[in-house]
Acetylglutamate kinase (Streptacidiphilus monticola), 313 residues
Amino acid sequence: MQIAPKGEQARNNTALPKARTLIEALPWLERFHGKTVVIKFGGNAMVDDELKAAFAQDVVFLRYAGLRPVIVHGGGPQISAQLEKLGLESHFTAGLRVTTPETMEVVRMVLAGQVQRELVGLLNGHGPFAVGMTGEDAHTMTAVKRYAEVDGEQVDIGLVGDIVKVDTGAVKALLDDGRIPVISSVARGLDGHVYNVNADTAAAAMAVALQAEMLVVLTDVEGLFVNWPESDDVISQLTAGELEKLLPTLASGMLPKMEGCLHAVREGVGTARVLDGRVQHSLLLEIFTDAGIGTMVVPDPDPNEAIIEGGLA
Ligand SMILES: Nc1ncnc2c1ncn2[C@@H]1O[C@H](COP(=O)(O)OP(=O)(O)O)[C@@H](O)[C@H]1O
Ligand SMILES: CC(=O)N[C@@H](CCC(=O)OP(=O)(O)O)C(=O)O
Protein backbone atom coordinates (compact mmCIF):
# COMPACT_ATOMS: atom_id res chain seq x y z
CA MET A 1 0.00 0.00 0.00
CA GLN A 2 1.17 3.49 -0.73
CA ILE A 3 -0.24 6.66 0.81
CA ALA A 4 -0.28 9.76 -1.37
CA PRO A 5 1.90 12.44 0.17
CA LYS A 6 0.20 15.62 1.40
CA GLY A 7 -0.21 18.21 -1.34
CA GLU A 8 -0.68 15.54 -4.03
CA GLN A 9 -4.05 17.05 -4.96
CA ALA A 10 -2.47 20.45 -5.55
CA ARG A 11 0.26 18.87 -7.65
CA ASN A 12 -2.42 17.13 -9.73
CA ASN A 13 -3.94 20.53 -10.44
CA THR A 14 -0.64 21.90 -11.70
CA ALA A 15 -0.29 18.79 -13.85
CA LEU A 16 -3.53 19.60 -15.72
CA PRO A 17 -1.93 22.09 -18.14
CA LYS A 18 0.54 19.34 -19.09
CA ALA A 19 -2.38 17.01 -19.85
CA ARG A 20 -3.97 19.75 -21.95
CA THR A 21 -0.76 20.11 -23.95
CA LEU A 22 -0.77 16.39 -24.61
CA ILE A 23 -4.44 16.49 -25.63
CA GLU A 24 -3.72 19.38 -27.98
CA ALA A 25 -1.51 16.95 -29.87
CA LEU A 26 -4.32 14.41 -30.32
CA PRO A 27 -5.81 15.69 -33.62
CA TRP A 28 -2.32 15.94 -35.10
CA LEU A 29 -1.40 12.45 -33.88
CA GLU A 30 -4.57 11.13 -35.54
CA ARG A 31 -3.88 13.03 -38.73
CA PHE A 32 -0.20 12.20 -39.13
CA HIS A 33 -0.13 8.60 -37.87
CA GLY A 34 1.59 6.38 -40.44
CA LYS A 35 2.55 9.40 -42.57
CA THR A 36 6.02 10.04 -43.96
CA VAL A 37 7.76 13.27 -42.96
CA VAL A 38 11.01 14.33 -44.63
CA ILE A 39 13.10 16.56 -42.38
CA LYS A 40 16.04 18.58 -43.66
CA PHE A 41 18.55 19.33 -40.94
CA GLY A 42 20.85 22.18 -41.98
CA GLY A 43 24.45 22.67 -40.93
CA ASN A 44 23.67 26.02 -39.32
CA ALA A 45 20.99 24.43 -37.13
CA MET A 46 23.44 21.84 -35.81
CA VAL A 47 26.12 23.99 -34.25
CA ASP A 48 24.86 23.58 -30.68
CA ASP A 49 25.03 20.27 -28.76
CA GLU A 50 21.80 20.86 -26.78
CA LEU A 51 19.92 21.65 -29.97
CA LYS A 52 21.24 18.53 -31.65
CA ALA A 53 20.18 16.39 -28.67
CA ALA A 54 16.69 18.00 -28.66
CA PHE A 55 16.39 17.40 -32.41
CA ALA A 56 17.20 13.72 -31.91
CA GLN A 57 14.56 13.48 -29.15
CA ASP A 58 11.97 15.09 -31.42
CA VAL A 59 12.68 12.72 -34.31
CA VAL A 60 12.50 9.65 -32.07
CA PHE A 61 9.27 11.04 -30.56
CA LEU A 62 7.81 11.25 -34.08
CA ARG A 63 8.83 7.66 -34.68
CA TYR A 64 7.18 6.48 -31.44
CA ALA A 65 4.09 8.54 -32.30
CA GLY A 66 3.69 6.41 -35.42
CA LEU A 67 5.06 8.79 -38.06
CA ARG A 68 7.75 7.75 -40.53
CA PRO A 69 10.54 10.34 -40.29
CA VAL A 70 13.31 10.51 -42.92
CA ILE A 71 16.27 12.82 -42.30
CA VAL A 72 18.19 14.46 -45.13
CA HIS A 73 21.07 16.47 -43.74
CA GLY A 74 23.48 19.16 -44.86
CA GLY A 75 26.63 20.38 -43.18
CA GLY A 76 27.84 23.41 -45.12
CA PRO A 77 29.61 25.09 -42.16
CA GLN A 78 31.23 21.78 -41.15
CA ILE A 79 32.52 21.24 -44.71
CA SER A 80 33.90 24.79 -44.82
CA ALA A 81 35.63 24.27 -41.45
CA GLN A 82 37.29 21.06 -42.62
CA LEU A 83 38.40 22.66 -45.90
CA GLU A 84 39.93 25.50 -43.91
CA LYS A 85 41.83 23.03 -41.71
CA LEU A 86 43.24 21.55 -44.89
CA GLY A 87 44.21 24.99 -46.15
CA LEU A 88 41.51 25.03 -48.84
CA GLU A 89 39.21 27.99 -49.40
CA SER A 90 35.42 27.74 -49.80
CA HIS A 91 33.86 29.44 -52.81
CA PHE A 92 30.14 29.74 -53.45
CA THR A 93 28.42 30.76 -56.66
CA ALA A 94 24.68 31.48 -56.45
CA GLY A 95 24.61 29.74 -53.05
CA LEU A 96 26.28 26.55 -54.33
CA ARG A 97 29.76 25.38 -53.33
CA VAL A 98 32.25 25.35 -56.17
CA THR A 99 33.27 21.69 -55.96
CA THR A 100 36.59 20.52 -57.37
CA PRO A 101 37.43 16.78 -57.19
CA GLU A 102 39.58 17.60 -54.12
CA THR A 103 36.69 19.49 -52.48
CA MET A 104 34.32 16.62 -53.31
CA GLU A 105 36.45 14.22 -51.30
CA VAL A 106 36.15 16.52 -48.28
CA VAL A 107 32.37 17.02 -48.80
CA ARG A 108 31.81 13.28 -48.88
CA MET A 109 34.09 12.66 -45.91
CA VAL A 110 32.49 15.35 -43.73
CA LEU A 111 28.86 14.62 -44.62
CA ALA A 112 28.97 10.82 -44.59
CA GLY A 113 31.82 10.32 -42.10
CA GLN A 114 31.23 13.07 -39.59
CA VAL A 115 27.87 14.84 -39.66
CA GLN A 116 25.79 11.78 -40.55
CA ARG A 117 27.63 9.60 -38.01
CA GLU A 118 26.95 12.14 -35.28
CA LEU A 119 23.22 12.32 -36.09
CA VAL A 120 22.96 8.54 -36.27
CA GLY A 121 24.71 8.27 -32.89
CA LEU A 122 22.39 10.80 -31.25
CA LEU A 123 19.26 9.11 -32.60
CA ASN A 124 20.47 5.67 -31.64
CA GLY A 125 20.97 6.87 -28.08
CA HIS A 126 17.19 6.32 -27.88
CA GLY A 127 16.98 2.92 -29.55
CA PRO A 128 18.05 0.93 -32.59
CA PHE A 129 16.44 3.26 -35.12
CA ALA A 130 18.80 5.30 -37.25
CA VAL A 131 20.55 3.92 -40.32
CA GLY A 132 22.92 6.24 -42.15
CA MET A 133 23.37 6.25 -45.91
CA THR A 134 24.22 8.68 -48.68
CA GLY A 135 22.30 9.30 -51.88
CA GLU A 136 24.87 7.07 -53.58
CA ASP A 137 23.77 3.97 -51.66
CA ALA A 138 21.51 1.58 -53.60
CA HIS A 139 21.27 4.29 -56.31
CA THR A 140 18.96 6.20 -53.99
CA MET A 141 19.75 9.56 -55.64
CA THR A 142 21.03 9.94 -59.18
CA ALA A 143 22.39 13.30 -60.30
CA VAL A 144 23.50 15.17 -63.38
CA LYS A 145 25.94 18.05 -63.40
CA ARG A 146 24.37 21.33 -62.34
CA TYR A 147 25.50 24.75 -63.54
CA ALA A 148 25.02 27.91 -61.49
CA GLU A 149 23.11 30.74 -63.09
CA VAL A 150 24.70 34.17 -62.74
CA ASP A 151 23.13 37.12 -64.59
CA GLY A 152 21.47 34.69 -66.98
CA GLU A 153 24.80 32.95 -67.75
CA GLN A 154 25.53 29.27 -67.01
CA VAL A 155 28.63 29.01 -64.81
CA ASP A 156 30.60 25.76 -64.36
CA ILE A 157 30.92 25.05 -60.62
CA GLY A 158 32.45 21.57 -60.88
CA LEU A 159 31.00 18.47 -59.26
CA VAL A 160 27.70 19.99 -58.15
CA GLY A 161 24.70 17.87 -59.00
CA ASP A 162 20.99 18.16 -59.55
CA ILE A 163 18.86 15.13 -58.79
CA VAL A 164 17.22 13.52 -61.79
CA LYS A 165 16.07 10.27 -60.23
CA VAL A 166 15.26 8.97 -56.75
CA ASP A 167 14.99 5.25 -56.09
CA THR A 168 13.04 4.99 -52.83
CA GLY A 169 13.45 1.21 -52.48
CA ALA A 170 16.11 1.21 -49.77
CA VAL A 171 14.50 4.08 -47.83
CA LYS A 172 11.06 2.46 -47.88
CA ALA A 173 12.52 -0.87 -46.77
CA LEU A 174 14.14 0.86 -43.80
CA LEU A 175 10.91 2.69 -42.94
CA ASP A 176 8.89 -0.50 -43.19
CA ASP A 177 11.39 -2.06 -40.77
CA GLY A 178 10.75 0.75 -38.27
CA ARG A 179 14.10 2.48 -38.91
CA ILE A 180 14.90 6.16 -39.39
CA PRO A 181 16.94 6.72 -42.57
CA VAL A 182 19.56 9.48 -42.24
CA ILE A 183 20.68 10.52 -45.73
CA SER A 184 23.69 12.65 -46.68
CA SER A 185 23.20 14.91 -49.70
CA VAL A 186 25.74 13.22 -51.96
CA ALA A 187 24.56 11.51 -55.16
CA ARG A 188 25.86 9.16 -57.83
CA GLY A 189 26.04 10.74 -61.26
CA LEU A 190 24.64 9.19 -64.42
CA ASP A 191 28.25 9.48 -65.59
CA GLY A 192 29.57 7.53 -62.57
CA HIS A 193 31.04 10.59 -60.82
CA VAL A 194 30.04 11.49 -57.26
CA TYR A 195 28.18 14.81 -56.98
CA ASN A 196 27.72 17.35 -54.21
CA VAL A 197 24.01 18.17 -53.95
CA ASN A 198 22.56 21.08 -52.00
CA ALA A 199 20.84 19.46 -49.02
CA ASP A 200 17.61 21.47 -49.43
CA THR A 201 17.36 20.27 -53.03
CA ALA A 202 18.05 16.67 -51.95
CA ALA A 203 15.42 16.81 -49.18
CA ALA A 204 12.78 18.18 -51.55
CA ALA A 205 13.55 15.50 -54.15
CA MET A 206 13.24 12.79 -51.47
CA ALA A 207 9.95 14.25 -50.18
CA VAL A 208 8.51 14.24 -53.71
CA ALA A 209 9.70 10.70 -54.45
CA LEU A 210 8.16 9.43 -51.21
CA GLN A 211 5.05 11.60 -51.73
CA ALA A 212 5.56 12.66 -48.13
CA GLU A 213 2.86 14.26 -46.02
CA MET A 214 5.27 17.02 -45.14
CA LEU A 215 8.70 18.45 -45.88
CA VAL A 216 10.20 20.24 -42.88
CA VAL A 217 13.32 22.38 -43.38
CA LEU A 218 15.17 23.37 -40.21
CA THR A 219 17.36 26.42 -40.58
CA ASP A 220 18.93 29.32 -38.66
CA VAL A 221 16.17 31.94 -39.02
CA GLU A 222 12.57 32.05 -37.80
CA GLY A 223 11.14 31.40 -41.24
CA LEU A 224 10.75 33.24 -44.52
CA PHE A 225 10.97 36.98 -43.90
CA VAL A 226 8.64 39.24 -45.86
CA ASN A 227 11.24 41.64 -47.10
CA TRP A 228 14.66 40.43 -45.98
CA PRO A 229 17.01 42.02 -44.90
CA GLU A 230 14.89 45.17 -44.34
CA SER A 231 12.25 43.32 -42.33
CA ASP A 232 12.21 40.30 -40.08
CA ASP A 233 8.44 39.80 -40.17
CA VAL A 234 7.87 36.11 -40.77
CA ILE A 235 5.36 34.94 -43.39
CA SER A 236 3.42 32.28 -41.47
CA GLN A 237 1.64 30.78 -44.48
CA LEU A 238 1.66 31.22 -48.25
CA THR A 239 0.44 29.32 -51.27
CA ALA A 240 2.72 27.80 -53.90
CA GLY A 241 1.60 30.51 -56.35
CA GLU A 242 2.44 33.28 -53.88
CA LEU A 243 5.86 31.71 -53.23
CA GLU A 244 6.58 31.46 -56.95
CA LYS A 245 6.13 35.23 -57.27
CA LEU A 246 8.46 35.84 -54.30
CA LEU A 247 11.29 33.54 -55.48
CA PRO A 248 13.14 36.09 -57.66
CA THR A 249 13.45 38.43 -54.64
CA LEU A 250 15.11 35.83 -52.39
CA ALA A 251 18.81 35.86 -51.58
CA SER A 252 21.11 32.85 -51.63
CA GLY A 253 20.68 30.40 -48.74
CA MET A 254 16.94 30.93 -48.60
CA LEU A 255 16.57 30.48 -52.37
CA PRO A 256 17.34 26.72 -52.62
CA LYS A 257 15.17 26.16 -49.54
CA MET A 258 12.13 27.91 -50.96
CA GLU A 259 12.71 26.46 -54.44
CA GLY A 260 12.72 23.04 -52.78
CA CYS A 261 9.52 23.82 -50.85
CA LEU A 262 7.79 25.01 -54.04
CA HIS A 263 8.91 21.96 -56.00
CA ALA A 264 7.73 19.66 -53.20
CA VAL A 265 4.27 21.18 -52.83
CA ARG A 266 3.72 21.42 -56.60
CA GLU A 267 4.70 17.74 -56.97
CA GLY A 268 2.30 16.31 -54.40
CA VAL A 269 3.86 16.81 -50.94
CA GLY A 270 1.10 17.92 -48.51
CA THR A 271 2.87 20.98 -47.06
CA ALA A 272 6.42 22.31 -46.81
CA ARG A 273 7.56 24.14 -43.70
CA VAL A 274 10.63 26.21 -42.86
CA LEU A 275 11.40 26.30 -39.12
CA ASP A 276 13.93 27.87 -36.80
CA GLY A 277 16.32 25.07 -35.86
CA ARG A 278 17.75 27.31 -33.12
CA VAL A 279 14.55 26.90 -31.09
CA GLN A 280 14.64 23.75 -28.99
CA HIS A 281 11.94 21.25 -30.01
CA SER A 282 10.74 23.44 -32.88
CA LEU A 283 9.96 20.24 -34.79
CA LEU A 284 7.51 18.95 -32.16
CA LEU A 285 5.97 22.37 -31.65
CA GLU A 286 5.33 22.69 -35.37
CA ILE A 287 3.87 19.26 -35.91
CA PHE A 288 1.91 18.69 -32.71
CA THR A 289 0.59 22.07 -31.53
CA ASP A 290 -2.16 24.29 -32.89
CA ALA A 291 0.05 27.37 -32.95
CA GLY A 292 2.68 26.17 -35.41
CA ILE A 293 5.84 28.20 -35.91
CA GLY A 294 7.85 29.27 -38.94
CA THR A 295 6.59 29.41 -42.53
CA MET A 296 4.21 26.92 -44.13
CA VAL A 297 3.83 26.55 -47.91
CA VAL A 298 0.47 25.09 -48.89
CA PRO A 299 -0.72 23.93 -52.32
CA ASP A 300 -2.62 26.37 -54.50
CA PRO A 301 -6.35 26.29 -53.85
CA ASP A 302 -8.29 23.99 -56.14
CA PRO A 303 -9.79 26.30 -58.85
CA ASN A 304 -12.94 24.14 -59.01
CA GLU A 305 -13.56 24.66 -55.30
CA ALA A 306 -13.06 28.41 -55.75
CA ILE A 307 -15.73 28.44 -58.49
CA ILE A 308 -18.19 26.55 -56.30
CA GLU A 309 -17.48 28.90 -53.40
CA GLY A 310 -17.84 31.90 -55.70
CA GLY A 311 -21.08 30.50 -57.11
CA LEU A 312 -22.57 30.02 -53.67
CA ALA A 313 -21.50 33.40 -52.41
N1 LIG B 1 13.69 36.19 -47.23
C1 LIG B 1 14.54 35.64 -46.35
N2 LIG B 1 14.07 35.26 -45.15
C2 LIG B 1 14.90 34.69 -44.24
N3 LIG B 1 16.24 34.46 -44.45
C3 LIG B 1 16.77 34.82 -45.63
C4 LIG B 1 15.94 35.40 -46.64
N4 LIG B 1 16.73 35.62 -47.72
C5 LIG B 1 17.95 35.19 -47.40
N5 LIG B 1 18.01 34.71 -46.14
C6 LIG B 1 19.22 34.13 -45.54
O1 LIG B 1 19.18 32.71 -45.68
C7 LIG B 1 19.82 32.12 -44.55
C8 LIG B 1 19.42 30.64 -44.42
O2 LIG B 1 20.11 29.87 -45.38
P1 LIG B 1 21.44 29.01 -45.01
O3 LIG B 1 22.38 29.88 -44.25
O4 LIG B 1 21.91 28.40 -46.27
O5 LIG B 1 20.84 27.94 -43.98
P2 LIG B 1 21.08 26.37 -43.75
O6 LIG B 1 22.50 26.17 -43.34
O7 LIG B 1 20.10 26.04 -42.69
O8 LIG B 1 20.77 25.65 -45.04
C9 LIG B 1 19.38 32.99 -43.41
O9 LIG B 1 20.25 32.92 -42.31
C10 LIG B 1 19.39 34.40 -44.04
O10 LIG B 1 20.66 34.96 -43.86
C1 LIG C 1 26.30 22.20 -53.77
C2 LIG C 1 26.37 22.63 -52.33
O1 LIG C 1 26.46 23.81 -52.05
N1 LIG C 1 26.32 21.66 -51.42
C3 LIG C 1 26.35 21.89 -50.00
C4 LIG C 1 25.98 20.58 -49.32
C5 LIG C 1 25.75 20.72 -47.84
C6 LIG C 1 24.55 21.61 -47.53
O2 LIG C 1 23.68 21.92 -48.33
O3 LIG C 1 24.53 22.00 -46.21
P1 LIG C 1 23.58 23.08 -45.50
O4 LIG C 1 22.21 22.57 -45.61
O5 LIG C 1 24.10 23.08 -44.12
O6 LIG C 1 23.76 24.41 -46.20
C7 LIG C 1 27.77 22.33 -49.56
O7 LIG C 1 28.76 21.84 -50.10
O8 LIG C 1 27.86 23.14 -48.62
